[in-house]
Design a protein that fits this description.
Length: about 210
């Protein structure tokens, strides 16, 4: 039996399987990073405008250095911090060029009523444009715990955006930005309330 072409056939099969086989790879977390700036401007922030969240080496969660037992409480904490409006001003900021006072006035009555009743603490954030949520991990913190924290922080922002336009956080997440009406709702939800999340450098191993 003439087997002279078997090597060619085997080589072609090898190429076929290499081209068609899907090789499993570890996927990271998709995040949109800010564009690189030629000049870095150091803008000082008031301590009250930074909500500090830390995950220590044994995966315990600290919010403003206080232990947090239930991770689901973090959503409410971030929600209240961003919408505190402790000292709103008339300075226009961000891509939408709106002030914190204009943002407050644009909120639905139910949200303004909640802010009046429960928020407005002078020791918390001055307004949404100033509020920054800082997440700091430890060298021993697990990736899973970090993702859980980040999910809760994002969920708090989506709750704000959705409630502002009469949607749930899940409905807001699913808005189709290719549809003009849904894109309008998407933009109206976050106008004047940017998602300001800072990922701080990890600390050395510690068990606080």
């Amino acid at each position: 039996m003439n087997a002279g072409s078997m090597a060619d056939i085997a080589f072609l099969l090898l190429i076929f399987f290499l081209v068609t086989t899907q090789i499993a790879t570890n996927k990271g977390m998709t995040m949109v990073l800010p564009p690189k700036k030629e000049e870095i401007i150091d803008v000082p922030l008031q301590e009250r405008n930074i909500l500090k969240i830390q995950i220590n080496s044994v995966n315990n969660i600290l919010v403003e250095e206080n232990p947090l037992d239930n991770i689901e409480d973090l959503r409410t904490i971030v929600y209240d911090f961003v919408l505190n409006f402790g000292n709103p001003d008339d300075k226009k900021r961000g891509q939408y060029k709106v002030s914190d006072r204009e943002t407050y006035n644009s909120l639905p009555a139910s949200m303004k009523s909640y802010i009046t009743r429960s928020l407005g603490d002078s020791k918390s954030s001055d307004g949404p444009s100033e509020a920054v949520v800082s997440i700091r991990t430890d060298r021993g913190s697990s990736y899973e715990k970090f993702i859980q924290i980040l999910d809760e922080v994002n969920a708090a922002y989506y709750k704000i955006y959705g409630e502002r336009v009469g949607l749930t956080d899940e409905e807001y997440r699913k808005l189709n930005r290719n549809d003009p009406r849904q894109f309008y709702l998407y933009e109206e939800g976050k106008k004047g309330i940017s998602k300001s999340i800072s990922l701080a450098e990890p600390t050395s191993n510690s068990q606080q």
